[in-house]
Write a structure and sequence with these properties.
This protein has 273 residues and is α/β, with parallel strands linked by helices. The chain has twelve helices and ten strands. Strand 7, helix 10 and strand 8 form a beta-alpha-beta unit. The N and C termini lie far apart (42 Å). The structure holds D-glutamic acid (DGL).
Length: 273
């Protein structure tokens, strides 16, 4: 018998194309769900802006996705999740899931020593959202955070391999040398695209093998339960659709999206917020 379900799309947004890491994780885990994505490529990066500006941008993104009749919102952006999640929850008449809590849950599950490193944007680090979320779950755990803002433009430009991203990653991870972390959280949507480089450099610079926790993957895992708890799952178990929208530069977005997702993405619509 066909399961009854909710076929409305899940709205996902990020400041740019980094949120595709969350989209890919969602589509791998929940292939029957329809997804509509918004990348605010006209205004990326968010991570260097004030909280007021991030909240304003986040509200505009939420309203834009609301027009697609979404059943819930996934805030793929760590910066927005750190700074504006509560505002969005009040603003929008639908369930909202951010990436910080799933990331913190996964980090707490992964660590053995309780020493967790987090790399993220300047705003995410300044907000203290990860240390707060981790200590709410494991009072003895300690978080050492490092802002790694230059990784964002590298990803937006599609520089995902080679010497330049490696050197930049090396420079940032140097700050974690001697911190004795056993777990490293990729606390920014863009960083999973550089995961291979980050893992190699982390092993060398930290001198021990740290488990890398990807908040995108962690979010997709929690999303499955989140939908089930609210009876929002789609009845289909495959062939979910993906609609992509951006606020600028659809061509370069399409190129990186196809490379990253590994399939053609069709027309990327440009929207004005
Ligand atoms: N999406 C942002 C995040 O996850 C990174 C890019 C930006 O700074 O806008 O924090």
């Amino acid at each position: 018998m066909e399961r009854s379900g909710d076929s409305r799309p899940i709205g996902v947004f990020d400041s740019g194309l980094g949120g595709l890491t969350v989209v890919r994780a969602i589509r791998e885990r929940l292939p029957g769900e329809n997804v509509v994505y918004l990348g605010d490529t006209a205004r990326v990066p968010y991570g260097t802006r004030s909280s007021e500006t991030i909240v304003r941008y986040a509200r505009a993104c939420g309203r834009s996705l609301e027009k697609h009749g979404i059943k819930m919102l996934v805030v793929a952006c760590n910066t927005v999740s750190a700074v504006a999640l509560d505002v969005l929850r009040v603003d929008l008449d639908m369930p909202v899931l951010g990436v910080i809590e799933p990331g913190a849950n996964a980090a707490v599950a992964a660590t053995r020593t309780g020493r967790i490193g987090v790399i993220g944007t300047a705003s995410t680090v300044a907000s203290g959202a990860y240390p707060r979320a981790v200590s709410a779950r494991a009072t003895k755990a300690e978080v050492v955070s490092v802002a790694a803002p230059l990784l964002v433009p590298l990803v937006e430009e599609g520089w995902l391999e080679g010497e330049v991203p490696r050197l930049v990653v090396e420079r940032y991870l140097e700050a974690l040398r001697g911190a004795s972390i056993d777990t490293l959280v990729l606390g920014c949507t863009h960083y999973p695209m550089l995961r291979a480089i980050i893992e190699q450099v982390a092993d060398r610079v930290l001198g021990t093998h740290a488990r890398v926790v990807d908040s995108a993957e962690a979010t997709a895992i929690e999303l499955e339960q989140f939908l089930a708890d609210r009876s929002l799952q789609n009845a289909r178990s495959s062939n979910g659709t993906l609609a992509l929208t951006v606020t600028d530069r659809p061509r370069s977005f399409t190129e990186v999206a196809e490379r990253f997702l590994g399939h053609a993405v069709g027309e990327v619509e440009v929207v004005d917020l």
